[in-house]
Amino acid sequence: MLAQSRGWIVTHKKLCLALGAACLLTGTALSHLVAAAEIANDATLKTLEAKMETQAKPTNEDFERLGEIINRNPQSARAHIILGLCYEKLGLASQAVQQYDTASKLAPNDPKPLADLVLARIHSGDVGDISGLIAHALNRFPNDPEVLFLAGYDALQNRKLIQSEKYLSQAYKAKPDIPWLKCVYAELLLYRHNPVKAYVLAKAELKTDPKNWRANMVAGLALIDGGHYTDSLKYLRIASDARPDRTDISEKLAVLSAWSGDYAEAIRPNLRCLAICTGATSHSPRLENLLLDCFKRTPKAVAVRVVEEESSQSVRAAQNAYYQNAVGEALQRVGWDDAAIAQYRAAVKLKPNFGLATYNLAHENEYYLHDYQQAKILYRLAQQLGLPDNLSATDSINRLEDRLLVRKQDLAWRLKDLLIRPSQ
Q1: pTM
Q2: Residue 61: what pLDDT?
Q3: What residue ranges define each of the domains in the chain, with the CATH number in brackets?
Q4: Torsion of CA 240, 203, 154, 113, to 10 degrees
């Protein structure tokens, strides 16, 4: 019995040793698996990081791989940064900001997430407290090139040119390949009256990013400073298409296009400026006269197509009744009444209490559509809504009613109604 018990004890010990060895082997295997997974994750992140430095767009597979990595290691600041870069590539700036914000909290001693967060905020247009965020980054990382670049950019935006040049030159000496550094530095040099060096830096930026709107803007403006007006147009076109909200770019493009004789090309940037500058109490006679001149020198089909494209593609144009009325008046002055009517109707539909657009529509109903009863209705409505001091709907109503009384006896009017039948 004693011998049997000893046998069980020996067997138990062997079993325990075997289990212990198995556990050690399993632990070793698991550690190897974890290490292999980390290597795979690192390789994936390197691949995606390199891809985001090119012009390539992220794919659904890229997002899935990043999601898997973050699910396995939610504390990976690097994974969140790369996910932010992917969002930026797709133009999803707010999502990018969230990822950079998370990364900056996960890696508070790393300047990159904070710098990326600031850049994403700039690209998204959310610059409410951007100066404070940059000052905080500069205080923590005073020698980091990307932080110095952002400090220089912020100083430039606030027209602190000497301070901006100090930071940007330091950043450029330390790390000249920071994205956007060359074009921002070039813009500063333009303000500092050095268009030659500004152009060289802008062109260097365009070698890696041909669609960079700021680099194209600076290259175009630098060429203008040097008197190379025609050469500047191709750069200004790219900049204006990328940033239609920048009236300084669009107006220069419109003026130079017209100066070069390409009046059709001048219409679109002119319309972009008008959509921003025209409001209830503001308008630009200079831009309106330029638009009228371009209409006179452009085939109707081409000009009207551009107007319609801007109305359908630009939110500012589509939602600005004052702009639509101004464009309608220019179209009417060159005799394109059908196109003018479309603009007036759009303006009145958008802003039913717009007296001037209603008056213009009444005028077109009287003189172009010959719908005299509708013209009277619209004149009366315009008078109720209010008109500029130089217009009186009452005079128009009285004149129209007097002519209607003798309409059957007025041979000229009867011939006009008979011969002129405009499209509705």
Answers
A1: 0.71
A2: 83
A3: 41-121 (1.25.40.10)
A4: 100
